[in-house]
Amino acid sequence: MKVLELFNVHKVYNTTHVEVHAVNDVCLEFEEGEFAAIVGPSGSGKTTLLNMIGGLDMPTEGRILVNSTDLSTLKSSAIIDFRMRNIGFVFQSYNLIPVLTAKENIEFIMNLQKWPRKKRDKRTMELLKAVGLEDRVDSRPAQLSGGQQQRVAVARALASKPRFVLADEPTANLDTKSTENLLDIMEKLNREENITFIFSTHDARVVKKARRVITLEDGKVVSDEIRE
Amino acid sequence: MKNYKMAWRNLWRNKRRTVITASSVFFAVFFALVMRSLQLGTYDSMYKNIIESYSGYIQVQDEDFWENKIVDNVFKNSEELREKITADRNVEDVIPRFESFALASSGSRSKGVMVMGIDPEKEKLLSDVEDKLVKYRLTDEAISAIKSEEIPAYLEKNMDLFHGNSYSSDGRLQIELGIKENDEEYLMPLFEKYASVKNGYFSMGDNAALVGDRLARYLGLERGDTIILVGQAYHGHTAAGKYVIKGIVKIPNPDIENKIVYLPVDVCQTLYYADGMLTSMVVHLMDDDDDAINNTLKRLDSNIESPYRILGWKEMNETLVQQLDADNKSGIIMIGILYLVIAFGVFGTVLMMTAERRREFGVLIAIGMQKTKMAGVMVYEMLYIGLLGILAGVAIALPSIIYGYHHPIHFPSKFAKIWEEYGFEPVMAFQWIDKYFLSQSLVVAIIVLVAVIYPVVKIRNLKEVNAIKA
Ligand SMILES: Nc1ncnc2c1ncn2[C@@H]1O[C@H](COP(=O)(O)OP(=O)(O)OP(=O)(O)O)[C@@H](O)[C@H]1O
Ligand SMILES: [Mg+2]
Question: Is the pTM of this model over 0.90?
């Protein structure tokens, strides 16, 4: 089943002096359960592409269907709602709400979705265990290491079982060990819960773990290889 | 997590800032309340002094008397009029007065004075002149006699400062001379022995006068001396009379004390060739709060026609009302400035709170939190800061004002002297908890709520892509 389709997507930034073609005629399809990396040099358009997929930004041309829905047809509060139900996000850093504990951060989306307490608690503990932080339930982000924070962010992104998770350079600030650890967790959850992961990276170690690698250059897809 | 709970947590992200902002709100509320209470209370006490020692709340006069205070504009002290007035449900009694001007002289000095003919018994309902008779006077002899005893140093100093002053009550003397509570028992008998003044009151028909303390000092008069009054009487006669001074009185309004001579009303009528006539009837009320006064005023106004005129205390004390009105406005401007400063402080906090959380807002919108919910959290945060400050301000101001209400501030001796020379009573009173409590708190609450508009608008216009990049 296709969870995501991009048809001839363009993104052009009009700065005062030059026109930047950040994403240039991208066509892509993603099936449920993929574990895909978007790679490419700095400035190649990875972040721009992910933001458009997540409805944070709109393409200047072309269409993106998420779950067969064209987000550009929705009004902004509906897009936010759509994200809450269907898309998990992990950013490079400062993902978490500093005043909430690890548990509360993970629960956040479930709360927005008004899950009953029991179901919420069960899912939260399950995820905390999956990311190996069951003993840090009540720690605030400031009391966690960068790697631990990213693990909590991944847990939060997965909490309400979204269609897919978008992660923009989730390991950029992590050391080798934490990077591998995070990737292992992501892969495990991807397999166990059959949730699609799309993440951008610079990191060869991360690329190695991906089952599909899309390479961007100057906003264009230059290669798209699937490896098993 | 509910909005209010999250807001509470957010509040403590930056404890110091929250505390400082809430404190600034607290100080604004506290000072505004105390300042207002003090100001309004002092006005009240000034009004009360002049009302109780002179005008009363309502007077009935001949319709021309107020504009032209000559003895010809008097009216007959008729039972019919009295009954008409006392028929009103808020009127307890009617106090007759005969008020005019005269030239008073004693020996080589003379001065224009206000002659007030009063009913010695009825007048006790309002100005109670008997209670205002001077009890102690700090003459130079009295002071040196007291000094010859063993007395504390502060008293010596204060007695010198206030030499010549007189007092109608123990309390006033103790306050002005700064007599400490512990010393009272020892010192008061000394004043009793060396500084007490024998004064008497008068009754109807007595050919006697009571004279304001300042006036008496100016004319160099004492009890037992004779005062001569000369003036214009009814229908072109010349008023002239000689009266024995039975007592010297202290009036809480220095201006009046400077010119008042009381006579029994019948004696006064004789002086002015106006037997059976009055210049005014002071209406003594049962209930004297503002609304009751206004309503009574309206009722009397419609029931009593020409040739009478009904005057309220505001009309009769126009100068003081205007003076205090102007003072009140400057007070309000002061508080306005205080609020402005606080408003900028609060706004600064809001600005920082919003700016430093831009990225967080972006992330939260990205993961699916609605902007309205986020704005809701911000509103709660400001509400907490505001409420914290306001409640603390009210909580601290309340006992302070209640205490102040029961213990008016008497100026320290030196200022008292200056203040009195300007014609004011050297007392600052507090007003009891009233509407100003609500209005001041509300203004501060509104400031806080207006400040919250900024983050709400900011969040509404937030572009999540840009916010995340920040
Ligand atoms: N808001 C913007 N206005 C103008 N140009 C922009 C804007 N955002 C991105 N760009 C440009 O678009 C291009 C793609 O940027 P993007 O951030 O997507 O690259 P990236 O592949 O994520 O790079 P990196 O690996 O450094 O994160 C760049 O040339 C960038 O300068
Ligand atoms: Mg990027």
Answer: no
